[in-house]
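Exercise 7b. Backbone tokens:
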């Protein structure tokens, strides 16, 4: 995750940098879902049967704690289809692990919303555009109205709530709408996720933006981040799955605060770019452990092995933990910004070339931007 708003304010105001002291696990606790989203990397239906039991999950949580996992993002499918979800989240809290919920919001009600926001440190609800765009993208007519109600219910409690938006060719025309909606509803966070081709192979590739579209979109997002900072608007902007966004932010920041550009660059190097297998991991509903949710290879299975044995050893994880990843080929081989983005997505590289260590094909940086200046 790339926290634009936090980086701008912390560098300008000389605040301590926000450091992730530990790892984040994105855990797909279930493969059940009440939607059929176009971009989903998990083929989910409500007929799926959960593989992982509550005792197995709790046992793994304790092992994750011992191995430095500090955050667990509850994902799916739709995580609220698990009856033991609150029990699992409470167990995380009892063991000092921060919990986030990633949901489509359709199971939020007046009767359960307080319990949801009291249980999770942060609640992110997916809205992928205006009403017709969201309903088409999520595969259910009427989904937008119900999801917006969920956001409003959760936001009214005063808890930390955010909109999650996946930017694709189908949703790009709603990018400005999402920011307008957050401003209108006073929603404190917007998370923009770039597409990663996975799950259904290259089927998702046709949904992805061109490099020109992506660049224009990122420039707009960065512009909004500075606008919110300049006007004191308390809306946090975060992007995901496109670490090259950091270089565009750095260049724009340097134009506005030239005397602080080097300080910003140091923060970005500390942030470290793509963290798959380093500070980020995924566990799917079958117990498979991957370096990130989109990664084409598994490194183990928690049903068969202790999490610690999986996470602390293995040639692939050792390679992923090299920073910067100088073994990446293509334009990354001589890129002077590699210590910031760390080469971007290995899943996208593999999807296009079959080589984990080729350049991220979605990198939109110019040759000049790949040089320090």
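Sequence design result:
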């Amino acid at each position: 995750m790339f926290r634009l708003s936090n980086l701008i304010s912390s560098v300008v105001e000389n605040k301590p940098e926000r450091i992730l002291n530990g790892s984040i696990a994105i855990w797909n606790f279930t493969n059940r879902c009440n939607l059929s989203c176009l971009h989903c990397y998990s083929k989910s239906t409500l007929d799926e049967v959960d593989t992982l039991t509550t005792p197995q999950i709790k046992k793994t949580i304790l092992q994750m704690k011992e191995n430095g996992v500090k955050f667990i993002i509850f994902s799916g499918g739709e995580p609220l289809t698990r009856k033991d979800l609150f029990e699992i989240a409470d167990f995380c809290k009892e063991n000092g692990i921060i919990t986030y919920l990633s949901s489509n919001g359709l199971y939020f009600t007046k009767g359960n919303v307080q319990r949801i926001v009291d249980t999770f440190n942060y609640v992110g609800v997916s809205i992928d555009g205006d009403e017709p765009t969201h309903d088409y993208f999520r595969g259910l007519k009427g989904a937008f109205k119900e999801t917006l109600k969920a956001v409003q219910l959760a936001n009214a409690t005063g808890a930390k709530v955010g909109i999650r938006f996946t930017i694709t060719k189908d949703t790009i025309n709603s990018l400005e709408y999402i920011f307008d909606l957050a401003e209108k509803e006073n929603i404190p966070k917007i998370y923009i996720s770039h597409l990663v081709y996975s799950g259904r192979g290259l089927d998702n590739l046709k949904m992805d933006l061109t490099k020109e579209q992506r660049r224009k979109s990122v420039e707009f997002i960065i512009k909004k981040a500075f606008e919110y900072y300049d006007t004191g608007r308390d809306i946090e902007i975060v992007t995901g799955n496109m670490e090259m966004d950091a270089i565009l932010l750095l260049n724009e920041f340097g134009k506005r605060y030239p005397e602080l550009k080097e300080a910003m660059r140091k923060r970005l190097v500390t942030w470290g770019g793509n963290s798959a297998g380093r500070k980020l991991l995924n566990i799917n509903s079958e117990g498979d452990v991957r370096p990130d949710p989109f990664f084409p290879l598994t490194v183990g299975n928690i049903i068969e092995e202790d999490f610690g044995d999986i996470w602390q050893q293995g040639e692939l994880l050792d390679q992923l933990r090299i920073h910067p990843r100088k073994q990446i080929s293509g334009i990354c081989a001589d890129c002077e910004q590699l210590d910031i983005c760390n080469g971007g997505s290995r899943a996208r590289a593999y999807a296009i070339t079959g080589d984990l260590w080729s350049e991220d094909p979605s990198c939109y940086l110019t040759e000049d931007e790949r040089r320090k200046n």
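Instructor comment: The CA atoms of residues 123 and 161 lie 5 Å apart. Residues 35-39 have pLDDT under 50 and may be disordered.
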